[in-house]
Structure formats: C-alpha cells, structure tokens
Design goal:
With 784 residues, the chain is an alpha+beta fold. It contains 23 helices and 37 strands. The longest helix has 24 residues, at 341-364.
Length: 784
C-alpha cells in the first residue's frame, strides 16, 4: 500500500508551540479514589490560544484507563464560558440545562441523552443568538422562525459509559468533543490534551495540527514500542462509529449508503463484504500498523470526492509506513464495490493543473490584467479583459473574517481579498462600454466559505438564499440573508438597486468542488450559462473529528446542498457547453474553454446577443478605494509604479490604489520569470519548509544584476535560515550549501501559496452560514 497522507495538501502544518512542554499534573491518588475505581488527575487544556492553558480535573476509570473523563459542566464552561446546570432527579436521570433555557434528560443507567430542542441545546448561546461578528458582515442573515427538533444520543449502543457521581456527570473527553462542537468552536482531544479551537481556519484547527511535528512525535512516544492498549483500541473504534453515525450526512456516492443508513458504520463494515469485514478487524487491532492501514482503507468505501476523508496520521509513526506496505499484499483484499479515491484525487489534481495552464495562456493575450496576490489564509484573484469579455478567476471561497469584523465594527480598512476585488472588477466591467460579457472561473476552485458565495451570487443574480437538506432531521430549509453589496455598512435601497447590464457565464470543471460546485448550481438555477465540463460535486458541509488515539476524519455532515428543485448536487452540474477535450494520453485540453474568442461566441449563442462592436469609447470608473481612469481604444495597456508598458500606438490606463502593496496591474504579455517576483519568496519558503520541516517567517527577494535572483529566508528573530540563488526564468538554482533547488513553475497566473494549495485538498467547509443558518442561529424568544 502506498501509504498516502489523505490530508496531503494542507499548506501549513501548524505546531502548537507549547505542546511539547505540556505534561500531566498528577494528583495524589486518594483512598476514596481507589475504592470507587478511578484515579484522580488533571488534564491540560488549551483554550482557543496557546497563551491560555488551563487544567481541568479528570478521572481515569479502571474500566477505561487510557481515556480521561471530565465533568460535562467543566467542559461546557470552558467551551462557551457559560454555565450548564445539572439537577439530580434521584432515579438515575439528570436534567441538564444550558443558558438558552433549553434542557436535556440524561439517563446514566441506559447511557442516553434526550433533548426536545437539538439546535439550542448543542449550540453555544453566542452562535444561537447570532451575535457572532461572523454573521454580521457583508452578508447579514435573516431571522428564520425557530422550530425545535428533538434528538436522542444513545451512548450505550456504542459501549460508551456515562458515569454519575452525586450531582456531577462524567464523560469521556473525546465523546464530549464529538457531542458539543460547533462551526466556530471546534474542540478535540490530542496527545493527552483537550484543545478548544475556533473555526477550521484558526491556528489551533485540527486540520492544521493533525500532522504537526509535535503530534507525530507524541504518537511515536506513545505507540512505537508497545502498540495500542486494548481498552484504547476498543473505545477508539466505538467512538469512531458513534461520531460517524451521529454526524454523517449521506451524500450518496458510497455503494453501501443504504446499509449505512440502516445499520450505521459498524453494520456496514460487519456486513458489507469480505474487505469491509477485514477493515473492521484492522480497526479493532492493538497492532498500530494494522490499525493505521484499516483507518486509511475506510476511504475506499466512504470517499465522496473529498468531504469525507480518513487520515491515518498514526501511519507516520516510525516504521509503520514500511510495515504497512508489507502488510497490505498479505490481506487478500478484493475491494469489491470500492471507490478508487486516489484516482479521483489524481484526476482533480491534474484537472486543476491543466485548467491553470490554459488560464495562464489565455491571460497572456488579454488587453488588461489585474491580479490580487493571495496570502497564507486567503486566495488571490485575477481579473482581465479582452474585446467584449471580462474574466474573473479565484481558486477558493476564502475570506478574512477578522479583517471584515474590523471593517464593519471598528472602522477598519476595506479588506483586499476575493469579495472586494470581485465587486471592484464587476464595477469596472459594467462601466466599460466595450464589456458586455463577464466570465467567472471555477475551473480550479475547490470550495470554501458560503458567505463569500452568497455575496458574489447576490451581485449577479439577486439571489438571497441557499437551499439545503438537513438529513439529521429529514427537513428542507434555506439560509436567507441580506447583502451589503456596496460595502457602505448599511442594508438599504442602494443595495437593492444595484444592477448590471452584463451577461454572465461560469466555467466549471471536475475540480469545481463544494462551494465551487454550488456556485455553478445556483448560476444554472438562475439561467446563467455554464461552460467547461461537469463540476466535481460535493454537497455537504463538513465536520472534523479526531479519533481518540490521534487520527483525523473529515465527515460530510447532515447539511446537504440542493438545487432549486430540492435535488442533491453531490454529483455535479452539467454545463451548457461541453468544451473540454481529452488528449491521446488521457490528459485534458482546456484550450477551447479558456479562449476569449470562444467565450464571446458562447455568450452570443446562449443569450442570443448581437456581437459587440469595437467602437472607441472613453469612460471614468470609481469603485470603493480604487480610482481608475480609462481611455479605451482597440487595445488597452497599463502602467505600474515602476515602468510604463504603453506603446506609441496604444492608449494608457493608470490605476491608483490605496491597496497598491497587494494589487499588481500589468500588461498581459508573456512573463519572463518562473513566477511573479512578489511570489518567489513564498514559493521558496514553502520549498524550504517541505525539505527541512521548519517554516521561515519572512523572505527577501533580490535581483543580483547578473541574471540571478537571491531569496533570503529568515526565522521570526531575523536570523537567516538559508539563501536560494536561482535563475528567475526557470526557478532552478542552489541553496547556501550548494544543493540543487528547483522551485515549481507558476507563471503569470499564480494565485499564490497556501490558500490555493489548501483548496486542492477539497475539504474546505461549506461555511459558517450553512451551520448557523440551519435553524440554529436565532435567539429563542422564551428562555424559560
């Protein structure tokens, strides 16, 4: 087995700096503790920041010595900074009450938990009341009528024991993390530490820390010699089944979907076929290699394009990878009814690369190009024009929520990212009489935050809602919102009056996944032309779960996106014009898709448009922070701060921007360097990190004047880590020790760095709006 990291592509494997210094604070074992069958101790807890480390009282019960138990009230207080109350009914049942006034009944004899109002009991009050700044930005959600939905957790079914001690209720820590979790507050148990992280883009996100050096080191110390204790193996399997069964949203692609619906994950593994039975056996094994192989093999039967993934991080323990490769051929696996998930990943990757290359070639021939550089957190974008066509491309629906919070609530600057650049590009195109057609490129877009999608879609269609199906409760619902289209921080008639005379088209490919799939779906529902190939699908919001012994699983949750006819969009959307060709070697040819002339013709045919004339016109455009004065003739060029690219026979466009540090406006001609100079440092830093496991904090790129460039990389204290001397045309050169360096080619069209790389992983969340908008994010009127 080629033991792949199934969460490969995560750009930043963040290490919790203080993790290695966190050790258990052992408490004295009392006679009382001995007599009641547990050892009292304390568990280290990181609360939303590595600067906020606490300890919580815990117990290690004799029946489960490998997993700590803590009081549910302590957990809830740390999770929400609010109090949960517990009332003992003196009959084996307890009433649990949260600040929203909602209660749940816990039966410790049956190990069950029931509430009549799932949303308000298991959602933190600040999210339930929609007071989070993340729901009050450029998309402001409308109030939906709250409908309480009852729900039951049956822990006993999974042999998970809940223990009562007078008025205290003790739960296994990983179980609490799987029950009390929200979109903006994601807890998990890793390396004997309870970690409370924010949203999935936060520094403490389990997505980032699952393959960190600290975690891998901890796994080596725990398992490399003695393997997995039996109690840990049993509980980890049971908890995995519990987490899966209570989270999974049934997108429908796996062959055994019906069996999973009827009997859960354990039932599917037990009854599916000989291979699934073997996977169950491996998952329950105390041998670390067998367990790691079994965990990754789950991908063959549950892969749905990327929203459901199982990352066997334990496979990175010393020696396990080699043993895995030896073990798999001996298992006699036939993989009947399986999904070749590695082939699907390979297809998505090759599709993205081919789309990028074709896009770059097209952009070279544009009359005008403006590129917004991306960052580690946010993707960049490209806007260009040629003839009567404007073109806008971005590779993920990412947004800097903190920057927008500053803008809307603390008089900060307008953020420079996909949302604002799309608005400005749309204004420019609409006010340029030459431009009649606007193309939005989803060709390499792997998804992201639905609030970004909601804003963009509202500008081009006036759509004010996203439809979804909640499989947990078998109900259809919608997320409705008002949009501050002009960023004036007010929802008013000016937003409703925002109109454009442009016609729109969307490019989609197999790589267009999650929100990258929803965007073509909503466009199609609103009569917008689709070009390319069938999109890659992906219909569910995701939830992240950390297995009790350190592996990571990403699950399609119960919030499933649907089209206007309430049909699932998980298998993708067919285009109006199939424009992608297959080469003899099986690779994809996007030259007919990324082609200004072809795009213009598709618009003419689809919308029955009269081909635009090429009259000379003059316009003046003002948009937000940028002021652009444009004189348009048959060709259009630009000037930058350093040099003019205008030719004697051509007119000139000058862009003055308060965002000049991050906005590059260039004439579209062949780039002579392997990547934009502004991006070389980031590419070199990523290369250095991949080779050395250490991420440089900063870099400086210098032109040496002899045909080479130097890229100097430093740590956070300013110390030089390494210097690459490279040929700027090829990206090849040497490091400071004389070792060969070959930086990847990105060309003129690079979206930059980690944000674009993370998109290729494809398990970006559908976003906060989908979770909060499911009926949770509204204050209950009566908090009795």
């Amino acid at each position: 087995m080629f033991f792949k990291k199934t969460i490969a592509g995560i750009a930043a494997l963040t290490t919790v700096a203080s993790m290695s210094g966190l050790t258990a604070f052992a408490a004295e074992e009392t006679d009382a503790a001995k007599s009641t069958g547990f050892k009292a101790d304390k568990i280290n807890t990181i609360v939303y920041s590595t600067d906020n480390v606490k300890t919580i009282d815990c117990r290690y019960y004799d029946s489960l010595p490998s997993i700590p138990y803590i009081k549910v009230t302590d957990y809830y207080k740390t999770w929400t900074d609010q109090d949960m109350t517990v009332k003992n009914n003196n009959d084996g049942t307890f009433e649990l009450k949260v600040p929203a006034g909602v209660t749940a009944s816990l039966d410790v004899n049956k190990d069950t938990l029931h509430t009549d109002d799932y949303d308000y009991f298991f959602t933190p009050e600040d999210e339930a009341n929609a007071t989070s700044p993340f729901t009050d930005l450029y998309v402001k959600q409308k109030t939906n009528e709250h409908k309480a939905k009852a729900y039951d957790f049956n822990f006993g079914k999974y042999n998970i024991d809940i223990i009562a001690d007078n008025d205290d209720i003790w739960f296994p820590v990983p179980t609490l993390c799987d029950v009390f979790v929200s979109d903006l507050k994601n807890p998990y148990f890793m390396d004997d530490t309870l970690i409370f992280s924010g949203d999935l883009q936060s520094a403490l996100s389990p997505l980032l820390n699952a393959q960190s050096e600290a975690h891998i080191k901890a796994l080596n110390e725990k398992f490399s010699k003695n393997g997995r204790p039996q109690d840990l193996a049993d509980y980890t399997y049971n908890e995995l089944c519990f987490a899966f069964d209570t989270t999974y949203g049934f997108p429908g692609r796996p062959y055994f979907t019906d069996l999973i619906k009827e009997k859960g994950l354990d039932g599917m593994l037990s009854e599916g076929n000989d291979t699934t039975k073997k996977i169950k056996e491996l998952l329950k094994s105390t041998d670390l290699t067998e367990y790691s192989v079994g965990f990754e093999l789950l991908n063959y039967y549950l892969w749905d394009g990327g929203h459901t993934q199982f990352a066997a991080v334990t496979g990175l323990v010393e020696g396990v990878r080699e043993k895995s490769q030896e073990l798999v051929p001996t298992l006699g696996l036939t993989f009947e009814n399986a999904i070749n998930y590695m082939a699907d990943l390979t297809l998505k990757t090759s599709t993205s690369e081919a789309a990028h290359a074709a896009r770059a070639e097209m952009v070279k021939g544009a009359d005008y190009v403006e590129e917004i550089q991306g960052t580690e957190q946010n993707a960049g974008s490209i806007y260009c024009e040629k003839g009567d066509v404007a073109f806008f491309a971005f590779d993920s629906f990412t947004t800097d929520r903190n920057a927008w919070d500053e803008y809307y609530h603390r008089n900060g600057e307008l953020p420079v990212e996909v949302v604002s650049s799309f608005y400005k590009s749309l204004l420019r195109a609409d006010q340029n009489p030459k431009i009649k057609k606007f193309v939005i490129d989803m060709g390499a877009n792997g998804g992201g935050d639905s609030s970004v999608l909601a804003y963009l879609m509202s500008l081009i269609t006036d759509a004010d809602s996203i439809d979804f199906y909640n499989s947990k409760f078998d109900v259809y619902d919608e997320i409705k919102g008002d949009v501050d289209k002009n960023f004036d921080k007010v929802i008013d008639d000016k937003d409703k009056e925002f109109k454009t005379d442009l016609k729109f088209g969307v490019i989609a490919t197999n790589m267009s996944f999650s929100c990258g799939n929803l965007f073509p779906s909503m466009a199609h529902d609103n009569g917008i032309m689709l070009i390319g190939e069938q999109s890659g699908g992906g219909s569910c919001a995701i939830q992240i779960r950390m297995a009790a012994d350190g592996n990571l699983c990403v699950l399609s949750s119960g919030l499933c996106l649907v089209d206007k006819n309430k049909k699932s969009i998980d298998l993708g959307i067919k285009p109006d014009y199939e424009t992608v060709k297959l080469n003899d070697d099986g690779s994809k040819d996007f030259s007919a898709t990324y082609n200004f002339d072809n795009l213009s013709k598709y618009f003419d045919e689809f919308y029955k448009m009269t081909p635009a004339n090429n009259e000379t016109t003059t316009t003046t455009t003002t948009a937000a922070a940028d002021t652009t004065t444009t004189t348009t003739t048959a060709a259009e060029t630009t000037t930058t701060s350093s040099e003019s690219t205008a030719k004697p026979t051509e007119s000139t466009t000058t862009v003055t921007s308060t965002d000049a540090a991050t906005t590059t406006t260039v004439k579209a001609e062949e780039n002579k360097t392997f990547a934009p100079v502004s991006e070389m440092g980031s590419i070199a830093m990523a290369d250095y990190k991949a080779k050395n496991g250490i991420a440089p904090a900063d870099s400086v790129t210098k032109d040496n004047g002899d045909g080479t460039y130097s890229i100097i990389m430093k740590d956070d204290k300013g110390n030089v880590l390494d210097t690459y001397t490279i040929d700027p045309a090829t990206g090849k050169g040497k490091d400071s020790k004389g070792n060969d360096v070959e930086l990847p080619q990105t060309g003129n069209n690079s979206m930059k760095t980690a944000a674009a790389a993370a998109v290729a992983v494809t398990f970006m969340a559908v976003g906060a709006a989908a979770v909060i908008g499911s009926g949770v994010g509204r204050k209950k009127k009566d908090n009795e």
